[in-house]
Please model this.
Amino acid sequence: MHLPTAPRTIVLAGLFLAAVPPVAAQQSAVDTAQSVTTTQQLQKPLKPANTSGQVPMLYEGELEDLGPQYVLQPQDRPKYFQVMSDLQLYHTNNAALAPGNKLGTDVTVLTLQAAVQSTTAEWFDGWQTQASAGMRYQSYWYGIFSGRNQSTTQPPSFSAVSDLDFQIYSPFVALNFKKDPWYGALGLRYASFNNDNAVSNENFYSEWVPSGTFGYQWNIDSQRILQFQYDGDFRATNTDEKGLHPVGWEDRTDHSISIIYSRILGQNWVIQPSYRLMWSEYTNPDRYRSDIYNTAALMVAYYFNDNASVRAFTSYEWRSSSEFGNNYESWNLGIGFSLNVSF
Model:
């Protein structure tokens, strides 16, 4: 049995103190999603190389920026549809992603995704391409286990952690390409952030994100795989009328380099340490801000079969920002469950 792939697995938390103006709480949700994206992209569990000489699978689904991505190799029966569900439960020691903040809480993230993909096309010099499009939904809940009414400030009490729940709706399209050992993808997605509670009303933020990935996969042997990967994007952003920030205030470009090592143990286990260095530059002409992220992560996953897996993960991230009050350190520990079906 070959190990199935799984979605990117590590998730970082991020919410802001409810004692600050609503715009800060809204921005914290955006930072949360950015952290989720950043760390999820580090996680690409791989199948071991098989004895038939086929290219090993890169990863089953790009969860955020690029939509589902697949290894480009011939199949006896093409699969045009993918349905994925994922549930992640984790604890963070710095829920506010703020300097010196130690507000600890649990976070639950539900991800549902459906996508359609084309057959693989062969091009010049052995390059293969495949197009995909779909819809992704995510919901974030805070304090289900540690207390939904937990105050975000002690004292005084201004708001419950549960007020910072939010959802993301994100359609996407992507074009994936590969020529062993190189791989990559170009994608475009739209994301709408929503919160129906007292902190922010309905849609409070949206972004268009063109993005690209280019990587090199070194199959050391059938049990060990090392990846070097570049990711880049541009985020064209918008806030609602109540957001207090002007349109485009959060526009930025992100660039990152990742190193991902996958160690296959037997037929069911994968151990995967990873590291990413990311640089973000804000592009609004009335604002100067640049951030540097360092993210180290470790995942251990067990695959029941080609469709179901469970994992444990931990991560540590620190950000250095040129804008005052935006440095932070965050440590996270959790588990996840994934179901992934293609047909």
